[in-house]
Write a structure and sequence with these properties.
Blueprint: H1 15-26, E1 45-54, E2 60-71, E3 77-84, H2 89-105, E4 112-118, H3 126-140, E5 149-153, H4 159-173, H5 197-212, E6 221-225, H6 229-240, E7 244-250, E8 253-256, H7 263-273, E9 283-285, E10 297-300, H8 309-314, E11 319-321, H9 330-338, E12 342-344, H10 346-349, H11 352-366, H12 372-397, H13 401-420
Parallel strand pairs: 3-4, 3-5, 6-7, 6-10, 10-11, 11-12
Antiparallel strand pairs: 1-2, 2-4, 7-8, 8-9
Helix pairs in contact: 1-2, 1-13, 2-13, 3-4, 5-6, 5-11, 5-12, 11-12, 12-13
């Protein structure tokens, strides 16, 4: 049953409804901690802000922004900020909750948070985008900070936006505070390896999962939905490991080539045109045909809610690696389980980004920075160890990797909640 919250309307297949269904499935495995489970269904703090800015033509426009802190039980809030015309409070709530689970699953000392602005950033000039970012940062400045809540890049945000956020917060507090955000430019306290960290995490967990089910990565056929930072980095690493990228879909089109796409040429085309649409060295497909492409590994790395039951019934993959947050509906999950298709869930599969964000945060506090090789070695070790622990939990309880990930994460969150108690 979807948790009833008076300030937001949700349905079972909405992002928050999906999250609640995932929590409900794990409650039987929480034992005595189950008495605290309701705290997982209620965000600690939700902030809605008005963002007025003067446009280049002199007009005044208002945008709606959000910052949700789902849980601060295990540490400061941690989660990205997305700029998208479809952003809603309910979506940001779900994303913040998944961050709580993700951070606990890899045992980072963070709670979960997320932010967003309902805007199409492609319609703004660079100056308008800077004004929007700075005003949003000032509005949410009352709840963020290096020890309170640390934003990061997400959909349609990048290191430049993080630099503006860091500078705005620093000006408001009167001191340079590099640790208030992660995903910054390296010369402003950012970490080497951060840009490709999420995609690398998808690759590392994917290789580990493939090994466990007897799927050889060299020669494997990979289909990728979304070719942003996550999808492109994962695709590059799989291609370097000998896999063939046979299909790619983004907002501009769907393309396929059974023998494998020339990834270098495709990425150059994307940089030049903004998307995969129009790439001459591949067959253009109808968007829905993407789910029918013959492949061994499917990487949904776009937006949530993509793997519906009907699409889950059609896919040919043996292994699904969730690069996006919430790409599979619970009903779709059930279909994949019945078809014996293994899913490595988002809350562990794409946790590489927040793990290197944690490294960046630690480096900012110490003013001592690691090499990219050191970053990648630490990341790979944490991801493999976390997945191994989750896999053992799944085997012990005979449950899916998703339910096992939630079981591990929720136990950590609720154990902290029980030990801290309630104040006052």
């Amino acid at each position: 049953m979807v948790a009833s919250l008076s300030y937001v309307h949700v349905t079972p297949d909405s992002p928050w409804g999906t999250y609640i269904a995932q929590v409900d499935r794990v409650i039987p495995y929480l034992g005595a901690l189950g008495r605290w489970a309701e705290t997982l269904k209620r965000p600690k703090r939700s902030l809605i802000v008005d963002i007025p800015i003067e446009m280049d033509d002199g007009s005044i426009r208002h945008f709606e922004g959000f910052r949700v802190q789902h849980s601060l039980t295990r540490g400061p809030g941690k989660g990205g900020v997305r700029y998208h015309p479809d952003v809603t409070l309910e979506e940001v709530m779900a994303l913040s909750a998944w961050m709580s689970i993700k951070n606990a699953a890899v045992n980072l000392p963070y709670g979960g948070a997320k932010g967003g602005i309902r805007v199409d950033p492609r319609q703004l000039s660079l100056k308008e985008l800077e004004k929007l970012t700075r005003r949003y940062t000032s509005e949410i400045g009352i709840i963020i900070g290096p020890h309170q809540d640390i934003p990061a890049p997400d959909v349609n945000t990048n290191s430049q936006i993080m630099a503006w956020m860091m500078d705005t917060y620093s000006m408001n507090v009167g001191a340079t505070a590099t640790g208030v955000v992660t995903g910054k430019p390296v010369h402003l306290g950012g970490s080497l390896g951060r840009v490709k960290a999420t995609g690398r995490g998808v690759f590392v967990t994917g290789c580990e999962a493939a090994k466990r089910i007897g799927l050889a990565v060299p020669g494997a056929r990979v289909a990728v939905q979304g070719l942003g930072n996550v999808g492109s980095a994962a695709a590059e690493l799989f291609a370097q490991a000998g896999a063939h990228i046979v299909a790619v879909q983004d907002h501009t089109g769907t393309i396929a080539r059974a023998s494998g796409l020339d990834l270098s040429a495709l990425l150059a085309h994307v940089r030049a045109t903004g998307g995969v649409g129009g790439f001459k060295e591949a067959e253009a497909l109808d968007p829905e045909s993407f789910w029918d492409v013959a492949c061994d590994i499917l990487i949904p790395a776009a937006l949530e809610g993509q793997l519906t039951p009907s699409r889950a019934q059609r896919i040919k993959a043996r292994l699904v690696l969730e690069g996006a947050n919430g790409p599979t509906l619970p009903s779709g999950d059930d279909v994949l389980k019945d078809r014996n298709i293994l899913v490595v869930p988002d809350v562990i599969c794409n946790a590489g980004g927040v793990t290197v964000s944690y490294f960046e945060w630690v480096q900012d506090f110490s003013s001592f920075f690691w090499t990219e090789d050191e970053i990648n070695q630490r990341l790979d070790k944490i991801m493999v160890h976390a997945l191994s622990h989750i896999w053992d939990t799944a085997d012990r309880h005979r449950i899916s990797l998703r339910t096992a990930t939630f079981a591990v994460a929720c136990e950590r969150i609720l154990s902290a909640r029980a030990d801290r108690g309630l104040y006052p």
